[in-house]
Amino acid sequence: MADSNSSLLFLSEKISHKSYVLRIVDLTILGLLFSLLLYRILHMSQNDNVWLVAFLCESIFSFIWLIITCIKWSPAEDKPYPNRLDERVHDLPSVDMFVPTADPVREPPIIVVNTVLSLLALNYPANKLACYVSDDGCSPHTFFSLREASKFAQIWVPFCKKYNVRVRAPFRYFLNPLVVTDDSVFIKDWEMTKREYEKLCRKIENATEDPHCLDADDDFEAFSNTKPNDHSTIVKVVWENKAGVGDEKEVPHLVYISREKRPNCLHHYKTGAMNFLLRVSGLMTNAPYMLNVDCDMYANEADVVRQAMCVFLQNAKNSNNCAFVQFPQEFYDSYASEFSVLQSYLGRGVGGIQGPIYCGSGCFHIRRVMYGLSTDDLKDNGSLSSLATSEFLAEESLVRKYGTSKELLKSVTDALQRKSNPQSSLTNFIEAAQEVGHCHYEYNTSWGNLGWLYGSVGDDIKTSIEIHMKGWTSSFISPDPPAFLGSTPSVGLETIVQQRRWATGATEVLFSKQSPLIGFRRKIIFRQRLAYFWILMCIRSTPELIYCLLPAYCLLHNSTLFPKGPCLGIIVTLVGMHCLNSLWQFMKLGFSVQSWYVSQSLWRIIATSSWLFSIQDIILKLFGISEVGFVIAKKTMPDSKSVDGSKPSQGEDDGPKSDLGKFEFDSSCHFIPGTFIMLVNLAALAEFLVRLLQSSCSHGGDGSGFVEACGCIVVVMLFFPFLKGLFEHGKYGIPLSTLFKAAFLTLLFVVFSVGN
């Protein structure tokens, strides 16, 4: 319960990051874009069709920048004060933590274990936390790893709390050597804890190499004769905190679950697993708040739960209807600087409207909001209105919405009415938990229209839209050091596949009932709608791809793309301001110039391939040819030597750990578009140089010239990894099959351009 004394300081406050200088820059760029469009309209009759194509592409770019300007107009974030929490709150609320995993090969158990250990060791009363791991791969190795990790947690959790360890994922903490100190007790504990962690790693590795060692253990009988897509529900209490008094030596509950899967049943991928987590946790602990993190996103800030509770409890007092608290997704490797900058500026921008967009990880939810409540269903004091009581709590309505499990219906009723869950042994609910994990349990219920929404691999965006449509707000917290840190796939096919899945999911939402194209119902602010529309606009890859080909086409066709004379200054100023603005954003966050260039190049390559193929996926789905699959990106352990996790200091290169030469290739069709664009522009530059040597290139007039050639050079610089891939071998070189296919397309493009 929170103290009602109004003289006490706020638990959190909204911090505005509004900048008139940034507004002027954004408006100036927007003005230059509109000036370019006006120039093209006035000179449309004097140029050929390429002028019209450029006008259409630039119109889309202008529209996108208009949306971005609207989103960034009033950036804000919530600043929590966790040190005030104990003074204000006498009984902290419980939190259930969800960690979904699906493939022990692509998501190695040691990564899952480190994420779980970081959550178990958070600075929060252990009797108020419970960690649930959903294993959609039904892997005995994952269960074995969690069981062994629970034993190590008896050492790790007290060690972290005794010495106030900041980084509580052991694989990151032990990357650095022991700091010299006079504290002999700490040295002894540190060495012992490290030895035990190394033993844990060896056990997990040995079990992976020799799976027969698991057969002799009765705990693994449930995994016999199971397949990842064909098995019964498995629910196992790995560790139960029976003391329940919140002592620093206690370890929170740890529960392993794997829902039933059958080959002919719909499972809804990660979304179905999240709803199963919602039901099982409701049965066992029924905490009013829930945290979900990806299996490779470990908790980097020990006070992260306390930070989120500051916002929830402060907003509850002020009736701000906050439904979830989103922390930015930060990464410690690869090309992640682009993503960090994007979240910093656009994330805060949406945070100043109706609240950030749910990103699928690093997010705290209110349970009863996920059960389908809207703001209209609540009184001013937060209790259910009379209409909502009859709609949600009537027996027929409960069964229709949530299923037939009596134990689950009781927990849902308690959650909706904000009743605390009485302490009971978790093992008493295993049978009920297995029941709500059956394949057919959700049939003829509202699951998928409440909880995490079905119908898209972009379930996080769809769920987020639905929550905001019901009148709820959300909060954005961006602490330093980051609250959560994760890994990104290797820079190559894995990254493109991951981005393709995100882009496909976002495009699916465009064709759902939550789509911004058909408008939202009440309760959502217009600028918030624009924010969702920008997130979902993966189709912008098409005009970007076309625009990358236009300079080459104009050189080959001997036509004009860019304005001539003084009006060329529009293009030069526009490109210069955009680059300087982007570079300033990177450097303000502490990233280097090299990091900026690497990110711009890699981001363009990844976007071109992933978004282009996402459109293909959606077209095939709309015509009923194939369904969109959920492809899991491969996770790997890091080789970084820094465990600090703080934003880098000015000038420090903490951006992409892979340089442009380390872009990995294979024979996948995903690399054909980038290779094609690079070859086309190289061919156009070669043809232009030949004309120069023959003194037949016209400078000025209606012919193409140096400006278009400069455009080709810019495109080649953006696709520089492909240029290096021409001269590399192995995984860093472009395979001959990909090169031949792209060369054939290039030949067709050149013939079309010259002969048209």
TrEMBL record:
Bilayer topology annotation: Multi-pass membrane protein
Keywords of this entry: Cell wall biogenesis/degradation, Glycosyltransferase, Membrane, Transferase, Transmembrane, Transmembrane helix
Location of region: Disordered: 638-658
Major place of residence: membrane
Keyword Transferase among record annotations: yes
SUPFAM superfamilies: Nucleotide-diphospho-sugar transferases
Localization, UniProt: Endomembrane system
Name assigned to this protein: Cellulose synthase-like protein B6
Gene: LOC104733636
